[in-house]
Automatic annotation (TrEMBL):
Homology family: Belongs to the ABC transporter superfamily.
CDD domains assigned: ABC_drug_resistance_like
Protein name: ABC transporter ATP-binding protein
SMART domains: AAA
InterPro entries, per database record: AAA+_ATPase (IPR003593), ABC_transporter-like_ATP-bd (IPR003439), ABC_transporter-like_CS (IPR017871), P-loop_NTPase (IPR027417)
Length: 293
């Protein structure tokens, strides 16, 4: 079992932005979802974990080794799937993996070849191994990204916004692949898609303004909101009024009608109680901060 323990981590950039504000998280094998809006501090936290930037204070232990003191320890066991690879060179999928495997230290030719062929098989790209990666569709590129992240059999994989731009079928296929690789290692999935966390992760944290506002098991967090989420259909002109009177956590149009959802321990007049969802957990955490967990 691998373990990543983050204790009281702090990082303030030169411009005064506090991107990581006293963050403490413990993660073991499986998929961990790091959920938060743009600018919450997710990328800063991941860059610090993988040793790409320093922290001002706090500690990070990976398998009991302090990685802020020894960043090479985690770098050797890490796979990273960034949001965007940028431009690919005009080389085939196989040749690019071969090149990356050499950089990752898979030195023996036969071992490298076996590993690349089996990874291409795993991500369902064997038939396309001779094609240049820049000709791949978005979904194929993301699956290629998983193959490169898995080179060298890392114990921790960090994935940044992986399903952005994928169609629903590609997204499903990609998510199945991610949950498979999380079985025997740590996979940290940073995203603002609540649904992906709901479908894939057994543990999660919600971040905003550098702080971890809530963490736990998605099912438990949903259960904790039972009986506290209320819905009402209103006219869109009434939204400002309801926002001033109640703890409105979200509003959405459904079939042209505006529904508002609010968080309340008591039954507000004219509202209907609804089963909570992970979206309600997310929005009530971000918009009210009133969950007592
Ligand atoms: N190098 C930097 N120098 C100064 N401020 C930065 C730097 N990198 C990020 N920030 C700021 O720190 C805050 C957290 O940014 P970060 O990129 O970590 O958030 P994020 O949750 O990953 O957002 P996104 O989903 O948009 O990538 C933001 O206010 C951002 O503008």
């Amino acid at each position: 079992m691998n373990s990543l323990i983050i204790k009281n981590l702090q990082k303030t950039y030169g411009n005064g932005v506090k991107a990581i504000d006293d963050v403490s998280i413990e993660i073991t094998n499986g998929m961990f979802g790091l959920l938060g809006p743009n600018g919450a501090g997710k990328t800063s936290l991941m860059r610090t974990i993988v040793g790409l930037q320093s922290a001002d204070s706090g500690q990070i232990f990976f398998n009991d080794i302090n990685v802020l003191e020894k960043p090479d320890f985690i770098k050797k066991q890490l796979g990273f799937l960034p949001q965007d690879f940028g431009v690919y060179p005009k080389v085939s999928a196989y040749d690019l993996l071969n090149h990356l495997a050499i950089l990752k230290g898979v030195a023996i030719y036969g071992e490298r070849k076996d590993q690349i062929l089996s990874l291409l098989e795993k991500v369902n790209l064997s038939a396309h191994r001779k094609k240049e990666v820049h000709t791949f569709s978005g979904g194929m590129r993301q699956r290629f990204g998983v193959a490169q992240a898995l080179l060298g059999n890392p114990k921790i994989i960090i994935v940044d916004e992986p399903t952005a731009g994928l169609d629903p079928e590609e997204r499903n296929r990609f998510n199945r692949l991610l949950s498979e690789i999380g079985e025997d290692r740590i996979v940290i999935l940073s995203t603002h898609l609540v649904e992906d966390v709901r479908n894939l992760c057994s543990k999660m944290a919600i971040m905003n303004q550098g702080k971890v506002l809530l963490q736990g098991n998605p099912e438990d967090l949903i259960t904790s909101l039972e009986g506290k989420i209320w819905k009402k259909q209103i006219q869109k002109e009434e939204l400002a009024h309801y926002k001033s009177e109640y703890s409105v956590i979200s509003s959405q149009f459904t079939a042209g009608k505006l529904n508002i959802y609010l968080f309340s321990d008591n039954s507000p007049k004219g509202f209907q109680n609804v089963n909570p969802s992970l979206e309600d957990v997310y929005f009530s955490t971000l918009n009210t901060n009133s969950l007592a967990l």
